[in-house]
Specification:
alpha+beta, four-stranded antiparallel beta sheet, three-stranded antiparallel beta sheet
Length: 285
Amino acid sequence: MFRRIRHNWRPVKGQPLTELDKKVLYYQNKGCLVPSRHLIKTPEQIEGIRRSGVVNTGVLDLVESKIRAGMSTAEIDKLVYDYTVSHGAIPAPLNYEGFPKSVCTSINEVVCHGIPSDDEILEEGDIINVDVSTILDGYYSDASRMFIIGKTTPEKEKLVRVTKECLQIGMEAARPFGFVGDIGHAIQKHAEKHGFSVVRDLCGHGVGLEFHEDPDVEHFGKKGTGMLLVPGMVFTIEPMINMGTYRVFVDEEDGWTVMTEDELPSAQWEHTFVMTENGLEILTY
């Protein structure tokens, strides 16, 4: 769903090659897809994204403390908006490409981009993904959590649990100077081992200075493919795992809500990460 750009690594003109330059150019000369230098965040930018992530995590903590059966998804939207603006930030989804609300609320067979509504009431047994994105001082952060409303079925509980495991396994697979495809390969293997499928039509993404940046972080694929992972890159991992088929469709009426083709449940967990020399650091929970 995001643009694909052919990137090239260019050393800083007039300056000697750094060790980072040498490493990235080695892979570039082998024909690998490498990031442009502008995708490598400065320490100051990473700190700004981290501060945004603190607000973003606070929003989800608030939702977790309030969410319950009988609550409308419009009430969740109000909680998100009020908390975000009271902390000097902006809900990134609000008016983004026409999206009308401050948060995405995706229940049961809704994979993502569910629009909050006064008419949508949470019921016992529902599973819901609440996806929050925050802009603070121009820096973007992004995360989502699954919530089980009351007691649900063992099948739904397993789906939520395995999806969270997929996020952790994807995180562990992401190593400096590895590849984006390593993440997707690990996630797909774990999901399919448990009889679930991985959504193909949506993916994680770079984030930080814009809402959606390169690279695309697909949650399926092969090791050693995709963009090289370089320290300083900031991106999300957000596996969408379906109980049935991986195929999805977009609701024609609102143009946003993504649902499973077979109307079986879906789950998603998401963090924003920065790649360091030692692996991933979580910036949003």
